[in-house]
């Protein structure tokens, strides 16, 4: 376990230290965890010139231990439960507010989850070698790398899923009350972390109940039902207004169309190929979109596709081999040993079905959103591999070669992926140029856009932030921009903004006496969250 923790730190810490860009949802997490979500959304600074420092106070800690404020703001303005943001608030109080600080919390959670996964494998009588291989593969897998790189609740959500599996297995094996109490606690905290936690919770509870039913353990079945009821009541006591967030989340669902139906169905395949992949695709986006524009990306993509297909094939072979050599029928599957693989497959199919049926929004197929399924899958595959080995009289030469070669392959892929991220860090450096601006005009005051743009701004910079419609309708006083030696126009292409409106604003700015402006960065690659451009005007 110590080796696994050391590997996680050595693989991820250089990548997290190199982060420059704070993404759309990440800044929302920071603003929320610093107890400023409501303050930002109701800010009087919108549509007026103000110092950047006046905006930046919205992602700084002005008060400590304001858990009630975080919860109240999330009920009224957000779609998520509050527990992760409470944890992030405590973390910021202890270690300060910064990009690296917020991301390192994920690293701590990933290390804890790796320990839980390893322990679960050992509890299920998986050999120490197989337990190590499975946990190492999980630690450096693409879903792990995707989730650890964002300041959001997916790593914590996944840790509670792993904990749910562990306490469920322990209770089934030992039938001790403390494990049932732990199961109840995990259910409450899990739903308080993410409203999708009922998916793994329901699947796990149903499978555990089915196992108990086949055993004719009616007493334990009743205890399980009571634990679920107690957990539901406890959650409601802590979060009585949760339905407001749930109804708000429903508004994000997309309308059904046949072209998108086929597109979504096709997205399932590349997503499945990435679940066990230890090497990054160049752009692991919802539809498996790949970037073929540059030769190095072509090489990375081809190599990653080959490794993704190879790892998926290996996993399928392990599972099929175990099924052929193991018990058949319902009684063969409703066992503690096969609980993880059954729960993982059912959770994955549920997520895919919700996505293809347009219940979930478009981003739900992203790997960080499916991260919660991975503890089930990796523990389940490890247990199935152990079944396959147990069916043989002695491990074969092929297994010995795989056991010795797999750690090296996993580590090389993980090191290459982190190294590529660090090398390409320079692509995001133009965002730091905003710190040179004497004045800054931003055509968005949106919650997830403006803080990312102003993250590296000089606190003394004069900032005017408003939507494109407001800027074009009012043509605000451009005095600070005219007086500035350098002023920047940062244009986000998100939400109601359009390229046509951007050109109108640029035409107005070019008439202020600073020339036509130099393009610092332009394109759809999201240097600015959701895409955007940066223009510099110099006197």
TrEMBL record:
InterPro entries: RgtA/B/C-like. GO terms for molecular function: glycosyltransferase activity. It comes from the Bacteria. It is an enzyme of class 2 (transferase). Signal peptide: none annotated. Residues 80-234 form the Glycosyltransferase RgtA/B/C/D-like domain. Pfam families: PMT_2. Keywords: Glycosyltransferase, Membrane, Transferase, Transmembrane, Transmembrane helix. The chain crosses the membrane at residues 83-116, 123-142, 154-172, 177-193, 199-214, 221-238, 297-320, 341-359, 365-382, 402-423. Its EC number is 2.4.-.-. This is Glycosyltransferase family 39 protein.
